[in-house]
């Protein structure tokens, strides 16, 4: 009996039925996963709601990225400074001081040499349970152009970056991790590539472009000598120091990114990315992922819209105190990757409005 069943399975007809069954099961699984993890609808009013500086007297509101007038010629407001630095932080009281010293030292020194170089630093406290915002506020008393925004609840790294970007005034917008893993002066490398892509100085903020600090960027032999202590070199060297399990998870994640989302950028997770104001106003309002995989959705959309995205090798060192939980964070990121591919591939805009609202597309309509 079992022999007959086995022979039937391996016939053309049997294989066809098995394939249909597997595909149906896979699609059903994706639909179930999508239903269980809905994307929160994005409302324009959310992005235009005022945000105020933490413990500022008098109360000071942040500059808005988006224009309030839907009929305005541009979707973004005019820039108020050359560079905005967005730093998401959660429970970083012990580490953020070192990062801010590195950041402020570079920016203050450059501003002294070049009066046209204006900047702001916005630390977005993502619902910390320690005294991170108070530490930042204390540092701001002796540093220039440093402000803190405190979120009422934890939104995830992606959510904190998104809110910070929507409340900044820079012609260029850089987000950087609070751990200080990347040497801040390497901003000049990203800036140089951005100017090259945008056609040189003066920088045109209406030109859509993204530059990513990368651990895997291809460089010339001369560049490799210059950046021999880059994140790329250290990432490869640190494989031997990681557990076998964590190494498998790392490579598995990069494989999933390539298969389901981004293929032009090798390192999507480096927390050192530079945007022009125009592309920030286009891509950040439609982001849905608020946790660790938000970088992938961001670059995925840029690829789909044919926005120039460049990689630049930066110096990097591993810092203790990572907020990533080795198993659950990677599992969550893998789930988000698959949902990015699934939801954008099936082109949700063609799905009936009821299903769109459940999944959560960005809309200008007022909430009901």
Which descriptors apply to this entry?
368 residues; alpha/beta; Spore Coat Polysaccharide Biosynthesis Protein SpsA, Chain A; 2 domains; 7 strands; Nucleotide-diphossugar_trans; endoplasmic reticulum; EC 2.4.1.117; Glyco_trans_2-like
Brief rundown of the structure:
The chain has 368 residues and is α/β, with parallel strands linked by helices. 43% of the residues lie in helices and 12% in strands.
Task: Describe it.
It comes from Caenorhabditis remanei (Caenorhabditis vulgaris). One of its GO terms (molecular function) is dolichyl-phosphate beta-glucosyltransferase activity. Belongs to the glycosyltransferase 2 family. α10 (244-260) packs parallel to α13. It is built from 14 helices and seven strands. Strands 3-2-1-4-6-5-7 form a seven-stranded mixed beta sheet, with helices on both faces. The chain folds into two domains: 2-36; 44-354, Spore Coat Polysaccharide Biosynthesis Protein SpsA, Chain A. With 368 residues, the chain is α/β, with parallel strands linked by helices.
Number of domains: 2
Helix content: 40-55%
Query: Structural class, please?
Result: alpha/beta
Query: Could you name the CATH homologous superfamily of the largest domain?
Result: Spore Coat Polysaccharide Biosynthesis Protein SpsA, Chain A
Oligomerization state: single chain
Total strand segments:
7
Distance between the termini: 61 Å
Strand order of the largest sheet: 3-2-1-4-6-5-7
Q: What's the CATH first level of the largest domain?
A: Alpha Beta
Report the radius of gyration as a whole number of Å: 23 Å
Which architecture of the largest domain does the CATH hierarchy give at level 2? Alpha-Beta Complex
Indicate the mean pLDDT.
78
Q: From N to C, what is the helix and strand string?
A: HHHEHEHEHEHEHHHEHHEHH
pLDDT below 50 for ≥5 consecutive residues: which ranges?
A: 217-242, 348-368
Which percent range describes the beta-strand content?
Answer: 5-15%
CATH topology name of the largest domain, in short, is Spore Coat Polysaccharide Biosynthesis Protein SpsA, Chain A
User: How would you sum up the major sheet?
Assistant: 7 strands, mixed
- What's the total helix number? 14
């Amino acid at each position: 009996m079992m022999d007959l069943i086995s022979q039937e399975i391996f016939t053309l007809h049997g294989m066809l039925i098995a394939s249909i069954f597997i595909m149906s099961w896979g699609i059903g699984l994706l639909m179930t996963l999508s239903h269980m993890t809905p994307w929160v609808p994005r409302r324009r009013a959310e992005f235009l709601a005022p945000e105020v500086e933490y413990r500022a007297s008098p109360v000071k509101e942040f500059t808005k990225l988006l224009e309030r007038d839907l009929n305005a010629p541009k979707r973004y407001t005019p820039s108020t400074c050359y560079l905005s630095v967005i730093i998401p932080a959660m429970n970083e009281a012990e580490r953020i001081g070192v990062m801010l010293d590195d950041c402020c030292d570079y920016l203050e020194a450059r501003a002294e040499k070049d009066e046209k170089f204006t900047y702001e630093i916005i630390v977005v406290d993502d619902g910390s349970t320690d005294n991170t915002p108070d530490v930042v506020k204390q540092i701001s008393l002796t540093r220039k152009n440093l402000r803190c925004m405190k979120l009422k609840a934890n939104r995830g790294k992606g959510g904190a970056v998104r809110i910070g970007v929507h409340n900044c005034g820079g012609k260029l917008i850089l987000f950087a991790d609070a751990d200080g893993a990347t040497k801040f002066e390497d901003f000049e490398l990203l800036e140089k590539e951005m100017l090259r892509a945008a056609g040189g100085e003066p920088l045109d903020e209406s030109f859509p472009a993204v530059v990513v600090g990368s651990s895997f960027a291809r460089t010339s032999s001369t560049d490799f000598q210059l950046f021999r202590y880059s994140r790329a070199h250290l990432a490869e060297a640190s494989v031997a120091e990681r557990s076998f399990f964590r190494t498998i998870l790392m490579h598995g994640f990069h494989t999933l990114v390539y298969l389901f989302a981004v293929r032009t950028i090798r390192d999507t997770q480096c927390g050192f990315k530079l945007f022009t104001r125009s592309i920030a106003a286009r891509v950040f309002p439609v982001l849905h992922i608020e946790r660790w995989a938000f970088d992938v959705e961001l670059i995925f959309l840029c690829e789909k819209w044919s926005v120039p995205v460049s990689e630049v090798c930066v110096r990097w060192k591993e810092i203790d105190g990572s907020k990533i939980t080795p198993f659950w964070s990677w599992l969550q990121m893998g789930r988000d990757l698959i949902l990015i591919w699934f939801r954008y591939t099936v082109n949700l805009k063609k799905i009936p409005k009821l299903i769109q609202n459940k999944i959560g597309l960005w809309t200008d309509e007022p909430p009901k």
